[in-house]
Design brief:
This protein has about 280 residues and is of the alpha/beta class. The chain contains eleven helices and nine strands. Helix content is about 50%, strand content about 20%. Strands 1-2-4-5-6-7-8-9 form an eight-stranded mixed β-barrel, surrounded by five helices. α5 runs parallel beside α6 (about 160-175). It is globular. The structure holds ligand C2E and magnesium ion (MG) (3 copies). This is EAL domain-containing protein.
Length: about 280
Amino acid sequence: QSKELGRNTYQIYDESMRRKSEQLFFLERDLRKAILKSEFIAHFQPRVNALTGETISAEALIRWEHPVMGLISPGDFIPLAEETGLIIPLGKWMKRKVCEQLVAWRKAGIPLIPISVNISSQRFLQKGFAKDLQNLLDEFQLEGKWLEIEITENSIMKNEEYILQTLRDLKELGVKIYIDDFGTGYSSFNYLKTFNIDGIKIDRSFIQNISSKSENASITTAMIKMAQHLKMDVIAEGVETKEELMYLLEQNCYHIQGYYFGKPCSIEEFEAQFLFQKS
Ligand code: C2E
Ligand code: MG
Ligand code: MG
Ligand code: MG
């Protein structure tokens, strides 16, 4: 009997594996088509200075408008895009999209705010990343200060000369660099003194229930202190409640991104809700 059970278990596993790889196959096929047809949209999420209520910048977050499945969130296709290398054209699409939007605002006489874009480590670690970004900014006649990039710790884990050079080139361009999901990677903090990082984004997992969960509170407080000593900006990500906000304000961390101030939304909604505000 146990033998039969074992075989059944194996078959179930096998069947679900087969279905999963079939789904991935179709998703990859669709993703390739979607890139050709630009079936993507950028949502913007505000970052607010909680002391003044001002929107200081925004993060651009990709969504896929699938013709049959509807809006797909990045968590459901970015991993596949990374695996298949399709993250490269996706990233290219997003950077252009953001530049186009900034130019549209400038033409309309709307004061610009920096927009930040997530850069996959695959792209960041390609040689010529900074040069390509410079070409893009030149094409749109945009100053580097309007584009910010978010990289994860694994992008700068290796202390290689060309990565240092990329970071220097970005600095030269005026493009600010943030470490995304800070605290969740495996790298040491050593890179913080080697590389000239402008700021960190404290991951949502540390912010959640910060006022009642003392481990989160001590880790977050330490991260904020460290960043302040190193003269880096700190953005707290995933702030949802008043309690979380209050705790962060007590630690002098007031650059906030999270549902408390606004979810990622369409650019039209973003303009209406966060750009045209009393200043
Ligand atoms: P991320 O860069 O860490 O972006 C923050 C994620 O947290 C976003 O999820 C955002 O919607 C979510 N978030 C923000 N505030 C809150 C909050 O208060 N509560 C909760 N529950 N969630 C909050 P999203 O848009 O699903 O993006 C997921 C991840 O996909 C991003 O994480 C980023 O790693 C990746 N991603 C998104 N767009 C791009 C892109 O254009 N290129 C690349 N390479 N990756 C992207
Ligand atoms: Mg990000
Ligand atoms: Mg993050
Ligand atoms: Mg991330």
